[in-house]
Amino acid sequence: MESPAATNPSSRFDVENVPTNYTFPEKDRPGELPPVCHTLPVIDLGKALDAETVNLIFKASQEFGFFQVINHGVSEKILGDTTDVLKEFFASPEKEGSNSCGKSNWVYDGSVNFDVNGVHLWRENLKHPCNPLEECMQQWPHHPTRYRDVVSTYLTEVGKLGKRILDLICQGLGLEKGYFDGFSGVELLSANSYPPCPDPSLTLGILRHYDPSLITILYQGDVPGLQIMKDGTWITVGAMSNAFVVNIGNQLEIISNGILKSVEHRVVNSSEARLSIAAFINPSPSYIVEPAQALVTELNPARFKPKSYKEFVYSSGALGTHTKTLQRE
Ligand SMILES: O=C(O)CCC(=O)C(=O)O
Ligand SMILES: [Fe+2]
């Protein structure tokens, strides 16, 4: 007879001890988790967005590559509905297989697919493209039935927030007004479900990586797990249920000619279930990403060669084996 884990993918996480094929070698495992970092800037977008806000965002993007925003304009109701609908998605058997009918653009990966040198990650993941929204959403999951309505509302609001943040970054870099206007939509959604883990010192939710985006806007609710690399050590980002975590991706590092940093990060597990929703704001596939002319000077010559975004995604392998489904042509 088949084990429950073979028939229900989520039940493989329903164990008292971490199985050996989820246990990372000593050199890679997180061990004792560092305390939450209190110096990562939390920026209030509810007040007048003046030179001080521009400066705070600019400094945080240079120093950490990350910051958090509060009073961001995305309502608690939208955050709550989106969290609920994604939890329902991950709890439902429909997540398995229903994207194999050919009319879908979404990819679900149970941890069985995340085989890193023989060790699995402690997470499940859903990804789908989001731009153009009206067109893409016709092919998103249709279980739960309100998935498309709820998630499209969320992405519209997060897209507006992204535009405001890019405007502030544009000012900080001293680029001409509207420099980022061409890419203010969310291109890709990646939702992660990290089941409760019996021993988070042994496992990883996501391996260390850089985001291939311009910026990423992450909602992580109130369970911490995101760690960023700072001066050679991992620091844990505090979890605030009313905040978004924003980080600079590889494309903005290139456009800023290295002035802003795309910083390495990873996810550790928790004894509590954790859900995170990453919205990637990316250039369009044919956009040639290169340092902005205004930021190339004799003292700071171009540090990166021009490359189309599509070429970057394919050559970096950032979207793995699912690139064709997830990346617009
Ligand atoms: O789950 C998280 O906190 C981070 C997710 C992440 O880094 C990603 O999706 O690129
Ligand atoms: Fe990431």
UniProtKB/TrEMBL annotation:
UniProt KW keywords: Iron, Metal-binding, Oxidoreductase
Domain Fe2OG dioxygenase: 185-283
InterPro entries, A to Z: DIOX_N, IPNS-like_FE2OG_OXY, IPNS-like_sf, Oxoglu/Fe-dep_dioxygenase_dom, Plant_2OG-oxidoreductases
GO MF annotation terms: metal ion binding; oxidoreductase activity, acting on paired donors, with incorporation or reduction of molecular oxygen
Family: Belongs to the iron/ascorbate-dependent oxidoreductase family.
The protein's name: Fe2OG dioxygenase domain-containing protein
Organism: Daucus carota subsp. sativus
